[in-house]
Amino acid sequence: MKEEIIQGRRVGPAEIGLIRELLCKHKDWNRSRLSRELCELWAWRDHTGRLKDMASRTLLLKLERRGLISLPPRQGVSPNAKRNRSPVLIEHDRREIKSDLRELLPLSVYTVDGNAEALKIFKSLIAQHHYLGLRNTVGQNMKYLIRARGGRLLGAALFGSPAWKTKPRDVFIGWNVRQREAGLWRITNNTRFLILPWVRVDNLASHILSRLCSRIDSDWQAKYGHRIHLLETFVDRDRFRGVCYQASNWVRVGQTQGRTRNDRYNSIQVAIKDVYLYPLSRNFRRELMA
Predict the structure, then answer these.
(1) Mean pLDDT, all residues of the chain
(2) How far apart are CA 21 and CA 139, in angstroms?
(3) CA angle 225, 230, 117 (to 5 degrees)
(4) DSSP readout, 19-81?
(5) How far is residue 206's CA from residue 210's CA, in Å, rounded to a whole number?
(6) What is the mean pLDDT of residues 261-271?
(7) What phi and psi values does residue 4 have, to the nearest 5 degrees?
(8) Residue 227, helix vs strand vs coil
(9) Helix, strand, or coil here: 139?
């Protein structure tokens, strides 16, 4: 194979040869052991010094699907594989909420980390009511629930891993490949934003986004010990106009090319999406390119 980027790493014949050598020499290793040892050999760690084990496992699976390596048999069903397949579906009050925004204020916007019941509610809402559904979250992420004054649920939001590369964002920042590879961990992607379908309140979505933008950096620091400097999101042009992002001062910087990160041969067509960004500091470019 030619050298290419997989899971943020450059992989070519030398890397494939190393993995095959490990598989041949250590037939007693399971997939987890192989993944960890590979991280150690490559010194593949995140900015906190933790081994990038999940990225390594995904890389190995992708290589196996291409027929480049043959992994040991699975020892059991991965808990991650079914973690979100069957979330507990919780029924909620579906009476229509149609009022002036001021009647719902002040909103309660809170993270769900460490609260098992709140996490169940979050997963149930996303699984039932977001058009993209619920998927496993890999890497650093932040989950939010939003309630009106009085406690009625209004929606949910999820911020997770940013796109590995997308031309409109990367041109807007102005970084090179090395700077992008080093700085991505200081960006997060608003991968899910949900206002429940029975909630019809003008300006609610933009108000919530503004609240999230004002607090997510401090929430991220509290959870992960580092700052983030830029938010991104991708808005499906066939479904939405991105009005709430525009109203809360996100910047539309371009659109995707209708391809996925797995489209090696330019043959997979997906919806074209508008790319919106929200800088969290004046010096975000300097911080991301440091």
Answers:
(1) 90
(2) 28
(3) 55
(4) HHHHHHH-TT--HHHHHHHHHHHHT-B-TTS-B-HHHHHHHHHHHHHTTS--PPPPSS--HHH
(5) 6
(6) 55
(7) -150, 170
(8) coil
(9) coil
